[in-house]
C-alpha cells in the first residue's frame, strides 16, 4: 500500500495571533475606587497623594475649595483624583459620597463647625449602606476606658466613640491611631510645640512634658499615606477590626532636641515648662491642651492604648520601611517649611544646602 504524500510542515501560526484586530481584548484590571474625607487635612492629603500614585481612583471630599487654595490646586492636578466640595453636615451629600466605591479613609475633625460624633456616625452608616469593603478610620483612645481609668482627652474620646459605633455596625474596618506629627514643631507660638529661637542661633523647646516622657511620632506627609495604602493592600483579612498604631519613632523631648540639634547644627535644648497659650485657638482646644497636661504629662498616661504601646514602631515600620525619622525631617524639611512661613531665623543660615533653601534644584 502506497503512503500518502507528506503534506509538509503544518502552519501553526493562526492569523488571529498576529493580526491585532483579531486579538482578544485583555481583561481589564478592576478600578479601585477610594473615598477620602477631609482631603486637605495632613493625614488625608497624604493618603490622596499615595493612592493616586499607585493607581486608585480617588474621590477627595473637602469642605471648601477656598479654604486651602494651594493644596486644593495640587490635589486637583493629581491623576485620577476628583475633588468633591460638600459639607459633612449635608446628609444628602453624605448619603451619595461612598456609592460605587470600595474603600474609604476617614479622619473627622473635632472643632466648632461640626459635631464629630454625629459626623463620624453619619459617615460610617452611609459607607455601610454603600457596601464599602474596607473602611479605615483614624481613631484615638479614650483614657477613661483604660485600666485603671483616667480622665478622657475630649478631642480623642469623640473619635473612640465613633470607633465603637463602627464596630457595632459591622462595617469591615480598621482603626489607625496616629502619633504626633513631625510638623507640629514650629518657631511660631503654637502651644506645646514651639521651638523658640534664641539669640545665640539655637532654639529652646518649652513644654510640660516630662523630659523622659515617650512620645510617638510620624511624618504624616511622607509616611502616613504609604502605611494606609499598605493596610488596604493587605485587606480586612489581615487587619479587619484591628487597632494599628502609626508611629515610626518613639522619642522623649530630650531625644527630639538632640535630633534637631544634629540636623540643624545648632544647640536645641529642652526646658520643662507650664503650658503657655499666646495665640487664638479653636473652641474646645484649650480643654484638650489642659487635658494633655494633666493626663499625659502629670499622670504619664500612655499616648496610645496600653496594649498598643510596645508594638507601635514595629507594626509601622513593617507596613512602610521607607519612613522618615525626626532627624532627617529636621534637616531636610523643617527649614524649608520655616522659610515658607517667613521665619526670621532662616536669615542667619542653616545646615540645609543653600541650593535647596533657595529653590534652585
UniProtKB/TrEMBL annotation:
Swiss-Prot/TrEMBL keywords: NADP
Pfam family, one: NmrA
Signal peptide boundaries: none
Residues annotated as domain NmrA-like: 32-330
Keyword NADP part of the UniProt annotation: yes
Positions of transmembrane segments: none
One cellular component (GO) term of this entry: nucleus
Keyword NADP among record annotations: yes
Region (Disordered) residue spans: 1-29
PANTHER family the record matches: NITROGEN METABOLITE REPRESSION PROTEIN NMRA (PTHR42748:SF5), NITROGEN METABOLITE REPRESSION PROTEIN NMRA FAMILY MEMBER (PTHR42748)
Protein name as it appears in the record: NAD(P)-binding protein
Amino acid at each position: 500500500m502506497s503512503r500518502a504524500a507528506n503534506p509538509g510542515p503544518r502552519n501553526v501560526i493562526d492569523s488571529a495571533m498576529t493580526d491585532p484586530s483579531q486579538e482578544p481584548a485583555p481583561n481589564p484590571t478592576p478600578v479601585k475606587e477610594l473615598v477620602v474625607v477631609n482631603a486637605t487635612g495632613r493625614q488625608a492629603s497624604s493618603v490622596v497623594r499615595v493612592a493616586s500614585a499607585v493607581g486608585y481612583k480617588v474621590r477627595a471630599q473637602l469642605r471648601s475649595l477656598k479654604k486651602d487654595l494651594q493644596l486644593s490646586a495640587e490635589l486637583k492636578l493629581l491623576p485620577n483624583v476628583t475633588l468633591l466640595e460638600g459639607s459633612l453636615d449635608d446628609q444628602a451629600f453624605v448619603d451619595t459620597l461612598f456609592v460605587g466605591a470600595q474603600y474609604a479613609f476617614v479622619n473627622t475633625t473635632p472643632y466648632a463647625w461640626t459635631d464629630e460624633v454625629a459626623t463620624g456616625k453619619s459617615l460610617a452608616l452611609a459607607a455601610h449602606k454603600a457596601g464599602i469593603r474596607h473602611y479605615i478610620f483614624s481613631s484615638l483612645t479614650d483614657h477613661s476606658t483604660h485600666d485603671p481609668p483616667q480622665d478622657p482627652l475630649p478631642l480623642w474620646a469623640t473619635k473612640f466613640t465613633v470607633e465603637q459605633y463602627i464596630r457595632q455596625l459591622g462595617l469591615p474596618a480598621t482603626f489607625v491611631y496616629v502619633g504626633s506629627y513631625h510638623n507640629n514643631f514650629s518657631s511660631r507660638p503654637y502651644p506645646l510645640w514651639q521651638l523658640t529661637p534664641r539669640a545665640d542661633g539655637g532654639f529652646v523647646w518649652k513644654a510640660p512634658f516630662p523630659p523622659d516622657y515617650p512620645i510617638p511620632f510620624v511624618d504624616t506627609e511622607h509616611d502616613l499615606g504609604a502605611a494606609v495604602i499598605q493596610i488596604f493592600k493587605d485587606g480586612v483579612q489581615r487587619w479587619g477590626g484591628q487597632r494599628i498604631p502609626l508611629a515610626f519613632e518613639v522619642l522623649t523631648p530630650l531625644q527630639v532636641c538632640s535630633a534637631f540639634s544634629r540636623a540643624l547644627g545648632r544647640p536645641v535644648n529642652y526646658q520643662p515648662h507650664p503650658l503657655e497659650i499666646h495665640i487664638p485657638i479653636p473652641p474646645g482646644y484649650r480643654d484638650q491642651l489642659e487635658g494633655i497636661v494633666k493626663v499625659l504629662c502629670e499622670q504619664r498616661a500612655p499616648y496610645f492604648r496600653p496594649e498598643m504601646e510596645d508594638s507601635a514602631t514595629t507594626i509601622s515600620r513593617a507596613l512602610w520601611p521607607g519612613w522618615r525619622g525626626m532627624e532627617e525631617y529636621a534637616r531636610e524639611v523643617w527649614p524649608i517649611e520655616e522659610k515658607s512661613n517667613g521665619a526670621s531665623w532662616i536669615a542667619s543660615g542653616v545646615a540645609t544646602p543653600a541650593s535647596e533653601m533657595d529653590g534652585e534644584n
